[in-house]
């Protein structure tokens, strides 16, 4: 689906995965069973990994989604070098008032694919049953 000229992603959850695995395809998903996904997200076991929520593969690049903590709503996306490339957190007004759980702010590096980042935010919400 295109929205104002932007390519959107179709996200599919793989069956028979213990922790969860999501594939993302650019554009509308028709019958692309043999096509490789544009990205893949694998949920990590929190007992073994602490705040690490999942691993993201985009081609040969690897990224990680890291929780901001149990009390904070949101997460950050870091590259394999540990650099933060995007961060999603609850919207906070200048007065300090924090808005609802479903009101988020997204900050990302300018060189990052915006459509991909929004797709990852959606996958995070699906994983945590917040959408």
UniProtKB/TrEMBL annotation:
Family: Belongs to the LOR family.
Membrane-spanning ranges: none
Family matches, as Pfam families: LOR
Organism this protein belongs to: Gossypium gossypioides
Name of protein: Tubby C-terminal domain-containing protein
